[in-house]
């Protein structure tokens, strides 16, 4: 992960250009100045919003239901767990100029998966919102809660114990994001507009020079300047268009499976054992599996 300093890169370009073209003495650079700037067209664009998800077991809840009477009973299952879900945003390749460059986002993520190894594909859509900081690689994480439950009563035969299990399945989603901005200096030096930086130096003939540069030169000299970075992808007037990378990491509950395993107790004359399951989807709907 890297965060590139646009002003520092422009100073580096100035030093390289002055040494290459004006015989600058590299020990004499001084008077570095950064002018005000305008940051515009700040965007965050997901590169992909639909995913094939691989569910994994996240949590298991168990409950025993005992009917020791001589008649069939309708009994509560009481299976419930609140799962913590996370939403993390990390800038993996960013840029800065003075204060942080930020923008808010809201994106709908779609995912498809198979429930319990079945052959029918199911899908979810979740809305994710937050803030990108184009200028920091620090991960920002938000959490939320999702409660999974199965509360429908079940019929328990006489002299029978039912072990009820709720298995909750979750899956990770990593959303790649492209970050974009345009940075334009507002300085005017000798009627030359869009200046972001000025740097003075003395050449080998002991003459003092001051070079004042617009950010667009970071793109213009991308093929000649050895310090050029891949974030400089275009220009707009005197401004440079920069492009970085980020990612959203989600951990989402996808579905749960309620399983009921019936075992006869002492005195049960039928001796029947039975196992059946139901799946609870994220929207609360219940399906037989």
TrEMBL record:
Read off the lineage from the record: Bacteria, Bacillati, Bacillota, Bacilli, Bacillales
SUPFAM superfamilies in the record, alphabetically?
Aerolisin/ETX pore-forming domain
Question: What name goes with this protein?
Answer: Parasporin 5-1
Cite the InterPro entries for this sequence. Answer: Aerolysin-like, Insecticidal_delta_endotoxin
Per its UniProt entry, which superkingdom is the organism in? Bacteria
Which regions form coiled coils?
A: none
* Cleaved signal peptide residues: none
Organism of origin is Bacillus thuringiensis
């Amino acid at each position: 992960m890297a965060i590139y300093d646009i002003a520092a890169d422009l100073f580096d370009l100035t030093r390289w250009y002055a040494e290459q073209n004006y015989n600058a003495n590299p020990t004499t650079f001084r008077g570095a100045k950064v002018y005000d700037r305008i940051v515009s067209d700040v965007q965050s664009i997901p590169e992909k919003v639909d995913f094939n998800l691989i569910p994994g077991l996240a949590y298991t809840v168990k409950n025993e239901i005992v009917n020791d009477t001589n008649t069939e009973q309708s009994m509560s299952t009481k299976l419930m767990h609140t799962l913590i879900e996370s939403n993390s945003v990390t800038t993996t390749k960013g840029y800065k100029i003075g204060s942080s460059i930020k923008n808010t986002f809201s994106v709908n993520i779609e995912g498809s998966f198979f429930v319990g190894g079945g052959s029918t594909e199911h899908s979810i859509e979740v809305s994710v919102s937050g803030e990108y900081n184009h200028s920091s690689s620090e991960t920002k994480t938000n959490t939320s809660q999702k409660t999974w439950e199965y509360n429908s009563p079940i019929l328990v035969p006489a002299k029978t114990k039912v072990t009820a299990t709720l298995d909750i399945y979750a899956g990770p989603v990593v959303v790649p994001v492209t970050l974009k901005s345009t940075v334009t200096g507002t300085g005017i030096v000798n009627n030359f507009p869009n200046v972001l930086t000025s740097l003075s130096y003395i050449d080998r003939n002991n003459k003092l020079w001051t070079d004042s540069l617009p950010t667009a030169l970071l793109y213009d000299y991308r093929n000649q300047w050895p310090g050029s970075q891949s974030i400089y992808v275009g220009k707009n007037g005197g401004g440079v268009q920069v492009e970085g990378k980020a990612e959203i990491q989600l951990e989402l509950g996808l579905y749960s499976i309620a399983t009921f395993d019936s075992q006869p107790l002492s005195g049960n004359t039928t001796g029947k054992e039975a196992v059946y399951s139901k799946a609870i989807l994220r929207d609360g709907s219940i399906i037989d599996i």
